[in-house]
Amino acid sequence: MEWLNTLLQGVLLGGLYAMFAVGLSLMFGIMRLVNIAHGDFIVLASYLALMVVNHLGFSPLASLLIVVPLMFCFGYLLQRLLLNRTLGTDILPPLLVTFGLSIIVQNVLLEFFSADSQKLSQGDLEVASVGIGNLSVGVMPLIVFGSALLIIGGLQLLFYKTSLGRAFRATSDDQHTARLMGVNNAHIFGLAMALAMAVVSIAGVFLAIRTSFDPTVGPARLLYGFEAVIIGGLGSLWGTLAGGVILGVAQTLGAKIDPGWQILAGHLVFLLILVVRPRGLFPRSVD
Amino acid sequence: MNALNNPAPVYRVQRTTTSSTIGLALLGLCVLVLFSAPLWADRASLRLVVEFAYYLALAQMWNLLAGYAGMVSVGQQAFVGLGGYLLFMLATRFGIPPLFAVLLSGVLVALLAIPTALIVFRLRGAYFAIGTWVVAEVFRLGLAQMSSLGGGSGQSLPAAIVRQIGNDRDGRETLIYFTALAIAIAAVAVVFFLLRSRQGLALASIRDSEPASGSLGVDTFRTKLMVYVLAAGWTGVVGALIFLQKLRISPDAAFNLQDWTAVVIFIVIIGGIGTLEGPLIGTLIYFVLRGCLAQYGAVYMIILGVVAVVMMLKAPQGVWGLISERLGWQVFPMQRRLSIQPRP
């Protein structure tokens, strides 16, 4: 029963990792951009939420009302003003520019918020739990997992049922032909980044409620998201959920054996899957 | 006009230019001055030169990987850290003399890089970059779990081993000074001769188009593996030397992304990626910037990051690229120029 509980915790944790991964997956899927600063943007969203909570007196979950639109706009501007200039056949410029951004964001956060670790408190909701049979499950992890399902389901609908989604898929398939058909690539890329940042901000707020954070924890979140994407297989949104769940379970099982092994176990499972199935479990696109 | 009274012209491939002769002579002079430095310079300056030397070697190796072989790694801190830890292990457990242990650490790191390469080579482009980072994290977290090596808090080099390097502090520092200088100069030389060889041509062709070079008979996998392992081993030697100088190691210091990879990437980008001169100029610029800005703490990394991002967008060829475009200079004779003269 104890192991079943651990397993369940891992699955729910996987929801959070899937949220880290969805942003990465969107950016890579639509504009072939791998954003190394992804984890630092997650932490940036956590700090934005912290400011909203501290200065406006919002609860962390309510802070999403401000943080999500803010990050959406930030993402659009970032893509239009900076990242669109780096896209092309050479992989070096986007990689190194986002790497530079990662270091810049970390140090800006360090300068403004110091290295002290922070946490958002959602009051009673954090400790509330519901009983399922003999298991007791936290309400907050359930909300996080449910949100991940909603986000992925919503994006799936957006991609396959709307004209914007059609433009996304067209640009993803062939940028040049999409342009000939009247798609404004620069704008589409901006919207894709804005969407990714909106997901990032939700992930950032949930992360901040779940654990304490400081300016240096971003890169680890990038790695978890990246591992979930690769485990799930490039280009598949539901795959990233599976990847996140596998990673979450590996980490909680590792932590169960020895607390020091939590993160290491996740990385090792990732490397193992890379050796056995280099294209992930549910590959859709070819890079 | 026929072939008989107008014989074929003489083709000659020219590599040295006036600027490269002057440049190499100046560089040689600098090296001579640096080798005499322990006679006249103070301790702080010598330490600065040691640091300059290991950043130059790290930058040269990252440049070889990313600028010449197209393998952008953000996980080179894995090899700096492994080099440092292997040095501590070899010196404290097996009693191997520290300087010899530095070299041996490099060899062992190179061996460890082979299985690493077999895993990360499954990823391409940007995913390769993040994959190398995961590997570095695995090494960091793994070593933090080994309590015999000090666990998460690390360990210091025992005094008995420190005395093996040299009896007094001056003797030790002088020895480390010459070793660092030799490692940096050898790093530049190895990359130089590698790139001028057949392998160098193969590398340039892989960077420009992997499928095309493969179809022309370049063994792309073997060439990339060789470069990856060479860069890893050399980075490991530098890592061992860094922690021999610091006398203390911990997982967070040894596998530090900002110190051993971010700074190195910025150096190469600012100096000029894909040139041998770039890392040299970049390291110089880095030390000047650091000298001016280090008192501002985090602001200095922000400025360095902004400079690198702007550089990547506005002048991806770097400072040296700008200079050589305008003036046609080269210090290391790398280019091949075809000169055609009519037969006398």
TrEMBL record, chain A:
DNA damage as UniProt keyword: no
Segments passing through the bilayer: 6-29, 64-83, 95-115, 135-159, 188-209, 229-249, 261-278
GO CC term (a single one): plasma membrane
A GO term, aspect molecular function: transmembrane transporter activity
The family this protein is said to belong to: Belongs to the binding-protein-dependent transport system permease family. LivHM subfamily.
Single GO biological process annotation from the record: amino acid transport
Membrane topology: Multi-pass membrane protein
Protein name, UniProt field: Branched-chain amino acid ABC transporter permease
Subcellular location: Cell inner membrane
Keywords: Amino-acid transport, Cell membrane, Membrane, Transmembrane, Transmembrane helix, Transport
Automatic annotation (TrEMBL), chain B:
Subcellular location field: Cell inner membrane
Keyword list, A-Z: Cell membrane, Membrane, Transmembrane, Transmembrane helix
CDD domains to which the protein is assigned, alphabetical: TM_PBP1_LivM_like
Main subcellular localisation: membrane
Record keyword Transmembrane present: yes
Annotated GO CC locations: plasma membrane
Transmembrane segment boundaries: 21-40, 102-121, 175-195, 225-244, 264-287, 293-313
An MF annotation (GO) of this entry: branched-chain amino acid transmembrane transporter activity
Lineage: superkingdom: Bacteria
Topology of this chain in the membrane: Multi-pass membrane protein
One Pfam family per UniProt: BPD_transp_2
PANTHER family: ABC TRANSPORTER ATP-BINDING PROTEIN (PTHR30482:SF17), HIGH-AFFINITY BRANCHED-CHAIN AMINO ACID TRANSPORT SYSTEM PERMEASE (PTHR30482)
Entry protein name: Branched-chain amino acid ABC transporter permease
Species classification: Bacteria, Pseudomonadati, Pseudomonadota, Gammaproteobacteria, Pseudomonadales
